[in-house]
Amino acid sequence: MSYEEKGVWVYLVTSAAGYLVYLAIIAGRVASTPVTAVSYVPVLLWTAGAAILASVIGRTLVETARPSDSRRSDVRDREIARSGEFASRWFIVAGAAAGLAMALARWDYFWIANVIYLGFVLWAVAGSALKVAAYRSGLQP
Amino acid sequence: MTGKPTRITNSIRALRFARGEMTQAQLALRIGVTRQTIIAIEQGRYSPSLEMAFQIAQVFQVPLDEVFQYPAG
Predict the structure, then answer these.
(1) Do B52 and A75 touch (CB under 8 A)?
(2) Residue in A70, A130, A137 closest to B45 by CB
(3) Is A59 left (phi over 0), alpha (psi -120 to 50) or beta?
């Protein structure tokens, strides 16, 4: 497995795990508090920050346990990265469009922030999953 | 992006062994890619660019169609 592929796996796991932790905490709070009164901002920022930090640490740990031949990316890595991000970009667009529509309709900040956050998470997870699939089963034009 | 499997086949593995058992890592170093990319090309999981295909043929000093083949029809 190349250095870049390992990085994609780590990013996929940490992105999904970070969001699942966020959902679990918020779901626990929603059970006892009205949605619009839930304190979600610190949880969102902390879980997003922790996911980024975990991906950096995870990549270092994976590389220590199973060192790669080289840490350089090549043309195949770049093509896979580009195609994964291109194919998953619609989640960002959908999240932004939904956020805009909800803001125009004067929805509560909780829903607007969460739909945009979900768009980012889906973009990261779907993009990483597509990249892993390309690494595993092949990338053809 | 993952698309249907390529119909292009290649003789890179045979050519490597015919050239003094050149390793995948040595070939990768010669054309400036990772060893995993050479593995992916050999297994038909990645179609290299035309430029990389010519680079590979140059390493083995053979014409391009001795490295890559495409079935007629």
Answers:
(1) yes
(2) A137
(3) alpha
